[in-house]
């Protein structure tokens, strides 16, 4: 039986809940029972040894829950796994005594080791108020507990000899996908497709072999938004498989944090069933509270949510960003999209001795935000510290819930000499790197092929310009954002009419004295106007000058330039804010030369206000790999139209003849 078929069989248990549970609540039954059935199958054969150890504890008078939990290592050894059950019950045994099912179910759940009990409580989504009884009490009240338990025991075999750990992880993901899609939620926010994870893992680990595969080496792997843990477990599997091939002993410790209680429960249970205690998996909002605050990691991989706002975390994150040594100090993106916050978080947790980061994103982090914005400053931080190693544009159709362009970013704080101050951009958004799926899964219709994964890895390892890659200097991504000003040009006429049209609050005695002058309506330039006022003994204060220009002046392209001091041609020119413009000048381009050729040629009176210069940074990968596609000729289009018309006429003729 395939993972897809098994996942479908598990999800079909929902038919027992039809008209009793709302669609959104079905997963509250299916997901924990899937876990319980797997645990039940895994623990088969361990009951006798666990019972023997429990008997020894009874003889010592250590029978309280606290006493038993304190002996967790001993009981784990007896069970042969990082979990156990001391109740002596199993799902198979429970259904043999229907009359006592509810009470026995409670005893069965309470018999699990503390780590499993904590996971089961998180499945309820009730946080600190959760109780193990929440798992089954509603089913019992609706007389469905026996039917559901039987459905899992009699129809669904999750024994390790039938379903290995890898397949079990896939089954979990499939069941989650069904659960989320049934209520219109994208499953992609809970897990990342395996083919993408495999590509991300291989690229992130590429070139690190000599550092990883050493006897006795301990490697830490971290995901700050770990979902069901697929990225973590596949990374560990990849490292351990290669270590086995090389005959070296490498220990991989997994760390992750997940916001959603139920997804956290799935992640932790999956890791536990693969032989790890999962002590490094935490539940909570990574942006609000880093549960691994003082820890650094060797490898970090993540697929953070795309385009999800962080308004809820804004006050806390903004306050933290004020500390120049904090994870968010380099800058903050718009509140509408928090992807780059996760990137900053991971960069902050890089080990000074060497770390690699692989993170997926959509296109927003590449170019959103102008010079001086939080987005741009974060990108600048990546390059200033020479952390960014590569960006890979991925093929379309890879994700369950979105068809938008996606990218894999690779960061390294111990780059080899040939990579320093360089960034490799790879255009892997090619059909040649994917293979079609036999059946679409949501919006996912292709898989990264073995050839695609190998070829992308080869291009990255070569780290040089080729047909599908461009090796760039870090300065290629910087630009200077300059402000271009042009002078204000004013004439003054019809002053009395303009004054009469003013709001009464803007009228004042100084302006009224000007309007009272006999020939004030005569057309004058700016210098002539204020010279005339001086001749009439009207004191021209800075405020009066500003008010006159604002209320009485008219813009005229043919008028002379306006100076800050009307009577001093050597004073600065006043800029016309309506003519203000901006230019983004690449770092490697001489600014004066660019200004001469691209601005003064068209606006000879323009100047640059260099005090307003800003340094910007963006990664225009789409522009760099743009391939011009010539438009079809008119002849070809007309030929297609004629062919369609002929087909239509033939169809119509055939219908009429019939």
What features would you describe in this structure?
This protein is α/β, with parallel strands linked by helices and 658 residues long. The chain folds into three domains: 3-181; 187-481, 3-Layer(aba) Sandwich (Rossmann fold), CATH 3.40.50.150; 487-574. 42% of the residues lie in helices and 14% in strands. It is built from 27 helices and 18 strands. The chain has a nine-stranded mixed sheet, sandwiched between helices. Strands 12, 16, 17 and 18 form a four-stranded antiparallel sheet that branches. A three-stranded antiparallel sheet has the order 14-13-15. It is elongated and about 115 Å long. The chain starts with a helix and ends with a helix. The model has no long low-confidence stretch (mean pLDDT 91).
Enter the CATH topology name of the largest domain: Rossmann fold
CATH superfamily of the largest domain: Vaccinia Virus protein VP39
Distance between the termini: 51 Å
Which architecture of the largest domain per CATH? Answer: 3-Layer(aba) Sandwich
User: Count the helices. How many?
Assistant: 27
Strand content: 5-15%
**CATH uppermost class of the largest domain:** Alpha Beta
Proportion in helices: 40-55%
Count of individual domains: 3
What structural category do the secondary elements indicate?
Answer: alpha/beta
Mean pLDDT: 91
Side-by-side strand order of the widest sheet: 3-2-1-4-5-7-6-8-11
Major β-sheet profile: 9 strands, mixed
Tertiary shape: elongated
Let me know the number of strands: 18
Q: What is the alpha-carbon Rg in Å?
A: 35 Å
Low-confidence region ranges: none
């Amino acid at each position: 039986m395939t993972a897809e078929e098994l996942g479908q069989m598990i999800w079909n248990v929902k038919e027992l809940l039809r008209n009793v549970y709302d669609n959104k609540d079905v997963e509250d039954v299916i997901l924990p029972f899937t876990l319980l059935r797997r645990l039940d199958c895994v623990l088969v054969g361990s009951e006798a040894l666990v019972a023997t150890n429990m008997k020894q504890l009874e003889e010592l008078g250590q029978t309280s829950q606290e006493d038993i939990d304190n002996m967790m290592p001993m009981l784990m050894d007896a069970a042969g796994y990082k979990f156990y059950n001391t109740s002596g019950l199993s799902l198979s045994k429970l259904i043999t005594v229907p009359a006592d099912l509810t009470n026995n179910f409670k005893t069965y759940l309470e018999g699990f080791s503390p780590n499993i009990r904590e996971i089961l409580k998180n499945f309820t989504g009730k946080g600190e108020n959760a109780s193990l009884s929440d798992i089954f009490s509603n089913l019992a009240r609706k007389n469905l507990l026996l039917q559901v338990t039987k459905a899992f025991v009699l129809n669904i075999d999750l024994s390790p000899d039938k379903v290995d750990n890898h397949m079990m992880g896939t089954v979990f993901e499939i069941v989650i996908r069904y659960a989320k899609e049934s209520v219109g939620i994208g499953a992609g926010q809970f897990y990342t497709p395996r083919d993408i994870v495999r590509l991300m893992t291989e690229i992130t680990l590429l070139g690190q072999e000599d550092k990883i595969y050493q006897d006795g080496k301990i490697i830490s792997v971290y995901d700050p938004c770990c979902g069901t843990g697929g990225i973590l477990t596949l990374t560990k599997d990849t490292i351990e498989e290669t270590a086995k091939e090389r005959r070296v002993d490498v220990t991989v410790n997994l760390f992750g944090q997940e916001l959603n209680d139920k997804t956290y429960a799935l992640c932790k249970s999956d890791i536990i069933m693969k032989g790890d205690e999962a002590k490094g998996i935490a539940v909570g909002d990574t942006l609000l509270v880093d549960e691994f605050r003082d820890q650094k990691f060797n490898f970090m991989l993540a697929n953070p949510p795309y385009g999800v706002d962080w308004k809820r975390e804004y006050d806390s994150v903004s306050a933290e960003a004020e500390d120049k040594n904090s994870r968010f100090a380099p800058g903050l993106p718009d509140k509408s999209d928090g992807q780059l916050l996760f990137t900053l978080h991971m960069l902050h947790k890089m080990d000074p001795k060497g770390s690699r980061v692989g993170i997926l994103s959509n296109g927003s982090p590449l170019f959103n935000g102008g010079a001086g914005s939080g987005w741009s400053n974060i990108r600048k931080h990546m390059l200033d510290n020479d952390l960014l190693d590569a960006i890979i544009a991925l093929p379309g159709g890879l994700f369950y819930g979105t068809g938008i362009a996606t990218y894999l970013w690779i960061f390294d704080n111990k780059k080899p000499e040939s990579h320093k101050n360089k960034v490799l951009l790879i255009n892997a958004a090619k059909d040649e790197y994917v293979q079609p799926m036999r059946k679409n899964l949501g919006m996912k219709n292709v898989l990264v092929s073995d050839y695609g994964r190998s070829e992308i890895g080869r291009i990255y390892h070569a780290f040089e310009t080729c047909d599908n890659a461009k090796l760039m200097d870090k300065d290629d991504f910087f630009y200077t954002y300059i402000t271009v000003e042009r002078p204000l040009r004013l004439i003054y006429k019809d002053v009395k009419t303009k004054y009469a049209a003013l709001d009464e609050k803007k009228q004042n005695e100084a302006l009224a004295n000007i309007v009272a002058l006999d020939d004030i309506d005569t057309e004058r330039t700016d210098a002539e106007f204020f010279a005339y006022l001086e001749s009439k003994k009207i004191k021209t204060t800075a405020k009066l000058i500003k008010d006159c220009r604002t209320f009485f002046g008219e813009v005229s392209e043919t008028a002379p330039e306006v100076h800050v001091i009307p009577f001093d041609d050597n004073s600065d020119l006043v800029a016309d804010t309506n003519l203000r413009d901006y230019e983004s000048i690449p770092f490697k381009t001489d600014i004066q030369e660019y200004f001469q050729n691209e601005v003064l040629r068209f606006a000879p009176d323009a100047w640059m206000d260099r005090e307003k210069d800003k340094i910007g940074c963006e990664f225009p990968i789409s522009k760099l790999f743009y391939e011009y596609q010539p438009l079809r000729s008119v002849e070809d289009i007309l030929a297609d139209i004629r062919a369609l018309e002929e087909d239509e006429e033939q169809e119509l003729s055939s219908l009429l003849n019939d």
